[in-house]
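Risk mitigation, structural track. In case the binding assays with C2G fail to produce interpretable data, a predicted complex structure has been prepared as a fallback.
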Amino acid sequence: MRRVITYGTFDTLHHGHIRLLRRARALGDYLIVALSTDDFNAEKGKRAFFSYEERKHDLEALRYVDLVIPERTWEQKVDDVALYHVDVFTMGDDWTGKFDFLKAQCDVVYMPRTSGISSTQIRDMITAI
Ligand code: C2G
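Fallback model:
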């Protein structure tokens, strides 16, 4: 079984996220999503519209997602890859190069982001109504 992992906030889930998750899952047979907790989002300088539990619930409903785990720190990726026997780490290409240190443990794949959609844009549209 080829195991894939990806990380993110996945707030106001949209087709950019879902395209990423579909392509991530297609890199293997099992997809783990490390979902940023509300505390970690604060550390990232992000404030999600939906709580961790709400975002986790929605991700778990997707056919492409096999397991959701909490992302609490920047540093946990090395341990996650080992603990979950990960073969492929993948992220959108806005992160290109940032996680190349994981190449010592697994394949690292950066995939093109979907243009024209972001959680920030959606939140701005909601507040503008
Ligand atoms: N993404 C995408 N297309 C978009 C928006 C997002 O492909 N239009 C991808 C991002 O590149 C990322 C994933 O969807 O791989 C999740 O995006 P965010 O929720 O914005 O995640 P981010 O805040 O970048 O957190 O340790 C890594 C961080 O937790 C990543």
